[in-house]
Design a protein that fits this description.
Blueprint lengths: L2 E10 L8 E8 L2 E6 L5 E6 L4 E2 L3 E3 L22 E6 L14 H12 L3 H7 L7 H9 L5 E7 H9 L10 H17 L3 E5 L13 H4 L2 H14 L3 E5 L2 H7 L1 H9 L3 E3 L11 H14 L1
Parallel strand pairs: 1-4, 1-5, 6-7, 7-8, 8-9, 9-10, 10-11
Antiparallel strand pairs: 1-2, 2-3
Length: about 290
């Protein structure tokens, strides 16, 4: 068999959990077509003697939402073997966005993730408004695989403007948010990202939109995932509300979707709290 690429003499770890083995990997038209001791002709041959041939790692919590638009390799994750990155975490995303909210949305990412505003202003070209349009803009020149979450803060800002950090949403605004989430899922987004981190503020000292939102809004948006039968919920700052009221477990139960926690840690203020948190998660999973 002829190959476009033949990687020879490497230690193959195929990701299945089976023991590694030495051999070759044949690639044709961008796909692995054969493993083993291969001798077919190839347009390009790489000698991997002394190296590992393995699927790339998934960097499952990133904030490349702006950077990916000018750096398709998402450095430095790719330098550490990651071939897939997951962005849109902690409710922060670069879509959806209205033209008059560009500065505001950049400010949220800048303040929470310590990314200088001058870099964001210089790099972002803003060729999109909706989530599908943003995904299309990113896809045009990708160097790694990118999975995207729908950021609650971006969705709330889109539907409510400055009021997203001042009050609860009206029924009409909530329906706009639900429609945005539904459209994002249909376009291929992986799910919804929220945050209950009460230490995430914007440059003016206000809680970011998602942290300001009442619980009822979270359940209304998570219900879109239930209706669609797809998607996960990523939670930034989920530990404290989980220990207080089992918020994320209740959200998972109500929507039937899995919740991914941003942090699960030991705290000097609540020693052993992580064990209680894990018990909540285990109980929900068993149900």
């Amino acid at each position: 068999m002829a190959y476009d690429l033949l990687v020879k003499n490497g230690r193959i770890i195929d990701g299945s959990g089976m023991p590694s083995f030495h051999g070759d990997v044949g690639v044709s038209r961008g796909k692995i077509v054969e493993l083993g001791r291969l001798s077919g002709a190839a347009k390009r041959v790489i000698d991997a003697e002394g190296m590992v041939i393995a699927p790339g790692f998934i960097d499952n919590h990133c904030h490349y939402d702006a950077q990916v638009t000018w750096d398709p390799l998402c450095t430095f994750s790719c330098y550490n073997g990651a071939t897939t990155v997951i962005i849109g975490n902690c409710s922060l995303a670069m879509a959806p966005v209205k033209a008059n909210d560009h500065e505001k949305l950049m400010g949220l990412l800048s303040q929470v993730e310590a990314i200088p505003m001058d870099i964001l202003r210089a790099g972002l070209k803003w060729r999109w408004e909706s989530i599908p349009e943003y995904m299309q803009a990113v896809e045009e020149r990708l160097g790694v695989n990118v999975g995207m979450m729908i950021g609650h803060s971006a969705v709330r800002l889109y539907a409510m403007g400055d009021a997203s950090q001042e009050r609860a949403a009206t029924e009409g605004e909530l329906e706009v948010m639900r429609g945005v989430v539904r459209g994002g899922l249909e376009a291929g987004a992986l799910g919804l990202s929220v945050t209950r981190n009460m230490s995430h503020f914007d440059v003016a000292g206000k809680l970011i939109p998602a942290a300001f939102a009442p619980e009822e809004e979270l359940f209304a948006l998570a219900d879109v995932l239930r209706e669609a039968g797809t998607g996960v919920i990523q939670s930034g700052g989920g530990t404290t509300p989980e220990l207080k009221s089992r918020l994320m477990s209740r959200l998972s139960e109500a929507s039937g979707r899995r919740v991914i926690y941003n942090v699960l840690r030991e705290s000097v203020r609540a020693p052993g709290g992580w064990k209680q948190h894990l018990d909540f998660v285990e109980d929900t999973w068993r149900q």
